[in-house]
Amino acid sequence: MSQITTNIRLYGADCNQSALVLAAIQETKVNMNVWLGNYPVSTDNGTAYQRQKGLIQDALQQYGAANVAGITVGNEFILE
What we know:
Elements: E1 7-9, H1 17-28, E2 33-38, H2 47-63, E3 68-73
Parallel strand pairs: 1-2, 2-3
């Protein structure tokens, strides 16, 4: 993928996505930045948001923010 683009956007943090992508970038030493994502669920009273926030924090503590371009929160459902 790094041959096509230097940026990738994640839409959520479940399944350890943030840590896995940051680890892959560091291990392969590619020139790539990632936009981490936190996709909250409008009907769960903030549970998904808090869970994903914790996963993102863990990934940042373990791998640092050198390859993080930003963090997006939410998506289309916020427009409802």
